[in-house]
Amino acid sequence: MTSKSKYPDGDLLLRTSPRPSDTNMNGDIFGGWIMSQMDIAGGMMAMETTGGRAVTVAVDAMKFIKPVKVGDVVCCYGKVVRIGITSINIKLEVWAKPVLREVNANKEGEFFMVTEASFTYVAVDHEGQKRQFSKIEILS
Ligand SMILES: CC(C)(COP(=O)(O)OP(=O)(O)OC[C@H]1O[C@@H](n2cnc3c(N)ncnc32)[C@H](O)[C@@H]1OP(=O)(O)O)[C@@H](O)C(=O)NCCC(=O)NCCS
Question: With CB atoms counted within 10 Å of each terminal CB, which end of the chain scores lower, N or C?
Answer without folding.
Answer: C
